[in-house]
Write a structure and sequence with these properties.
Distance between the termini: 21 Å
Number of strands: 0
Strand content: under 5%
Radius of gyration: 13 Å
Number of helices: 3
Shape: globular
Largest sheet: none
Order of helices and strands: HHH
Length: 62
């Protein structure tokens, strides 16, 4: 799992993500996030890396 910043354009991606949610209600926004997670997980593909990412996300402070 990569732990160093690996974005080519983090601000640009963040802006695209915010814009993608702009006119969505809460349910549509949640569905978009779910779809995006599954698409990105498919791009990663490696079960161990995906497991490590899930564990890292769960351990972040609330």
């Amino acid at each position: 799992m990569k732990t160093e910043v690996n974005f080519q354009d983090a601000d640009g991606f963040y802006e695209q993500l915010i814009n993608a949610h702009a006119d969505l209600n809460a349910e549509q926004s949640e569905l978009l996030n779910t779809r995006l997670i599954l698409i990105l997980a498919n791009q990663i593909g490696d079960a161990t890396v995906l497991h490590d990412c899930l564990q890292a996300a769960k351990s972040l402070p609330k």
